[in-house]
Structure formats: structure tokens, C-alpha cells
């Protein structure tokens, strides 16, 4: 160990007690990965318990030029929490205080280590909910949701994380404490740094507190299951549903391969080619009419069956099956590439038709499901890396070309991380990318925060 390294650790030990600082490789090992299954061993792991410890840690890293990566629970799929160049991992799992619950103003203020599910449970006690609801909600943290601008099924009606945060407290890469945003639902004083930090994957600042905007719990729900003979006619139905006046609170799609994975959870016709889950929420008095209007829009070519969930138990079983899809795919093939592309809703049919052709061309099974109501599909390439790695990468490139050609974007809610980093310049023009790099330099002048993420590698 060099003299500089010893001094670095000595200063960290002045901030963190022994049980909050890991240096043994075996102890550090679990903090080098996320759900992308990529792994890089960090040099040190610390567990801050408050903003002051985060600030002191970032200042020490800044002084010694040590890379620092903030980490929630590691549920991300793009490698965003992987310490790509070693350095220090700020494991935020001990920052779990709920600082304020304010039902009168529909606000909850939390630290980044609080899980999404904990926020939902606390909000529910007061008759509210927080809209972001990713499949990993039981385990993922608010900090992770903020880093990736998480969405989920409810985003179609209530928006993604960025739409449901009023303000933040954060530590920039230079170790400066900042506050962004407001406590009110309206406010236009200064630049909107809150929305800038959300989705920046910890490359600009380490978030230490978030003021979240809550919504009243709906009085009731109606959940419809529509089954189509093929994915093209289902995609056309999505466009019809989204063109009428009733906005569903969820509109999920599963193709035939995804349907096969959930047959054990619910009965489905043998000839089912695609399934749409459509949910509306609101006052009980208006839901029957809303359900009828959604059903009318769903009817059309290819529809085999449409029915409403008979009871709450059936509704919950259908949602449980939907949320089990992504984990289940890991058992089908040795490797999975999980993308979450987005296209305009009107071009969904073109997207799924193009994906089918790419699957056939490259002989790579592609399983599609996701948030069809806002054009956000999870595209899963399943393959054996021992013999198909090159074909899978070339297929993925063409998936991205297809998406961009349809006026879409490469990520809807998973973020960029490592997985999509080298494709970003296909979507963002050079002048805009350069401006983004300049913003990064202002927040993080030494480039210590989560290096190697988001930006394509410059030659």
C-alpha cells in the first residue's frame, strides 16, 4: 500500500467507525456488482449514516483523486452501480430515515436508502402512494429510483420518478452540499437542477435526501385482460386505447414467449399470441363506464378474448405473474440482455414486427413485455455466450438502430450505465454530448463520481 493510500484510509477512519468501513477483499466483494451481473472489486466500501458523513467522504475522495460510486441495493440492470475503475463504494443502505411525512401537503421526505416499498407502506397509512413502481420495488431504494429515473406500470398516468420529486439534497463531486427544487408543487425560480440530477446515475452528485410528491390512493380499480392472436394486432390495439379519452393507470404487454412463462399463474388460451393487461383507477362511480370505453377501444382485428378480473385476488395474481417475468427469464438461457427501449406509441406495431425479423435473422430468441401504454418495451435477448456472443451483440446493435429509426430512445427507465454507454452517441448529437460533458465537469471537476458511465468512451 502506498503512502497516499495509507493517508486516504487514515482520513476515512476518522469519519467512519470500524463496522462502517470495509477493506478486506471478501467483505468488499458483494459491493462490486449489480443485477447486470458485471463485477469489479472496489478498493474500499463505506456505509454513511447521514449527509455529513457523505460530504466528508466525497471531500476526502476529491482530495486524493479516488473514484466514488454511490450504491443502493444493486438491483439495476445496466451496470450503473458497478465500480468500473475500483475506488470507493458509498453503500447508502444505512441512510434509511424518513424525515417527514406531511399528508396536508402530500409530501414525504426520505433518505436515499429507504426502499420504494417502505415509502409505499408509509404513504398508504395516510391514504397516499408514490407513483414509481418498478418490478424490484420490494428491494430497490429511493436513491436507485432517483439515479435511473425509474418508472413502472403506473408511469403511463402518473409519470416517472422525475415527475414525482419536488426537491433534493445532494453532495457534488467537489464535496459541496446543495439543495435543489421546492417544497411546493409549483416553482420556477432558477434552473431545474432537481430534474437534472434525477437520471444522472450518480455522475453529478450523491443524493442524500429527497422530497417526494404523493398522490391520493384511488378508490377502486378495474383490471382487464385482453388476448390477441399476434403481437402486431395487440400493438395496434394499444394505439387505439391511448387515442381515446380514458387514460389507463397501467397498460402492459406480453408477447407469446412471455405468456408461456406465466401459464402456471393463470389460465390462458393455447392460441394466445399476446396479452394486454389494462387497468383503470379512480372513483368507484365512474369506473364501469371507463372500463366499457377501454374495452371498446381494445376490440378489433386479432382479439381473441377480453375479460375483467373477477375479484381482487385474481387481479393480484395477474400482477404477480407480470412482475415475475424478468427474474424467470434468467432460467431460460445462459445469458440475457435486457433492454428497455421506447418508441412513439403509434409505432409500436412497427417495433414488434422489426424485433421478430431480427430474432429470425440472428437466431436469437427475443422475449418482449413491458409498459406498452407509453411505448416502453423490455426487449430480452436470450442466448448462449459461448457460441452466440458475437451474433447477440450485432443483433442488439440492430435493435437500437430499429428503435432510433422509429423516433424512439434507447432507455426508458433502466438508465445507461455501462450497457448502453457506447451507443449513446447514436441518439445524442456531438454538440449536445459536449454540453453534457461540460455540465459533468462543473458538478464533478475531478471526474471522481461514477466514472465510465453514461458517456461513450472518447478515442
Q: Note the total helix count.
A: 16
Number of domains: 4
Shape: globular
**The first-level CATH class name of the largest domain:** Alpha Beta
Please state the second-level CATH architecture of the largest domain. Answer: 2-Layer Sandwich
Q: Please bin the fraction of helical residues.
A: 25-40%
Fraction of residues in β-strands: 15-25%
SS-derived structural category: alpha+beta
In round numbers, the mean pLDDT is: 94
Over the alpha carbons, how many angstroms does the gyration radius reach? 23 Å
Quote the distance from N terminus to C terminus.
Answer: 32 Å
Question: How is the biggest beta sheet arranged?
Answer: 7 strands, antiparallel
| Arrangement of strands in the largest sheet | 15-12-14-13-17-18-16
CATH fold-level name of the largest domain: Uridine Diphospho-n-acetylenolpyruvylglucosamine Reductase, domain 3
Keyphrases for this structure?
459 residues, alpha+beta, Uridine Diphospho-n-acetylenolpyruvylglucosamine Reductase, domain 3, Alpha-Beta Plaits, seven-stranded antiparallel β-sheet, 16 helices, 18 strands, 22% strand
Give structural notes.
The protein is of the alpha+beta class and 459 residues long. It folds into 4 domains: 3-94, Uridine Diphospho-n-acetylenolpyruvylglucosamine Reductase, domain 2 (2-Layer Sandwich), CATH 3.30.43.10; 98-216, Uridine Diphospho-n-acetylenolpyruvylglucosamine Reductase, domain 3 (2-Layer Sandwich); 220-323, Alpha-Beta Plaits; 327-422, 2-Layer Sandwich (Alpha-Beta Plaits), CATH 3.30.70.2740. Helices cover 36% and strands 22% of the residues. The protein has 16 helices and 18 strands. The chain has a 7-stranded antiparallel sheet with strand order 15-12-14-13-17-18-16, with helices on both faces. Helix 1 runs antiparallel to helix 3 and helix 8 runs antiparallel to helix 13 (348-362). The longest helix has 21 residues, at 385-405. It is globular and about 70 Å long.
